[in-house]
Write a structure and sequence with these properties.
Elements (H helix, E strand, L loop, with lengths): L2 H13 L2 H8 L3 H15 L4 E4 L2 E4 L1 H24 L8 E7 L1 H18 L3 E7 L3 H9 L5 E5 L8 E14 L10 E2 L7 E5 L4 H11 L6 E6 L5 H6 L5 E4 L1 H8 L3 E3 L1 E2 L2 E9 L6 H11 L1 H7 L7
Parallel strand pairs: 3-4, 3-5, 7-12, 8-9
Antiparallel strand pairs: 1-2, 5-13, 6-10, 6-11, 6-13
Helix pairs in contact: 1-2, 1-3, 1-4, 2-3
Length: 302
Amino acid sequence: MNRQQLEYFLAVAERGSLGHAAVAAGVSQPSLSQALGTLEKELGAALVRRVRRGAVLTPAGHAFVPHARLLLRELRRTGDVLGQLDGRPAGELDLVTTPVLAVDPCALLLGRFRGLHPEVRVRVRVTDRDAEVRDMLADGRAEVGVGYLPLDADGIVVRAWAEHEIMAVFPPDEPPLPDPLPVRLLAGRETVGVTGHSRQRELVGDHLAAHGVRPRITVEVAHREMVIPLVLAGAGMSFVAGRAARWAAGQGARVCRLDPPLRQPYGLAYVPGRLSPAARALAGLAMAPEHTERVDGGSVGG
């Protein structure tokens, strides 16, 4: 069993087609099929069943997926350790996070990291499900995760990093508002919300409910990137965290802290013993006190 076989198998598992997997892997379909057949012989089990419109995993194939990911991760980690250039991290690094955290703090962190370690290729996976950050670490799809807390799971180390302050964002033509803004004054406000469940949506809902306020969602969007443009266009108010609030204020939105304030802590997560040199360097950089101060979203006001 080798790295190439594992990569080809996982490409088929993720794409449901030998042809699409071959294109993604940059090889011919016959070569991919041959490697896959060799892997099946070595394991003594059929992993993939060809069907009319693609390929599906057998029960053995489904069972092998998490093991294949972890084996591939370990092979890459070993290669990265052996292939370090002059003692500096090299190779690949997979990070998983959520949409808001991808922008702040991950973009700034990764920009600084790449400046220090240009030999490392970074892949960022973004999920709308907070729980998937934990799941992708557990099954080897990612080495490092950044997620809102709590992010508890057996076998995963979580290190508190910083926090976002969640603020109320209003259209530019909104009359002057007190800052901080008492939560009770948000009753009845037309609100732009995001479809689905997230830790942030739950936190905001609980905070409002604790003060007798029920959000009145008048526009609901599937893509979080639409929220601020909709607010700027006058579709309603919303709740925004971290640097996104500063950006909205710079575009003309009225942004207020909440009274009482609403803060959401986030942290860095990983499985101990599985970190490559690049992942260890990233974790060390994230936890450095001077960097924690830079990436913390803070508040809009001076």
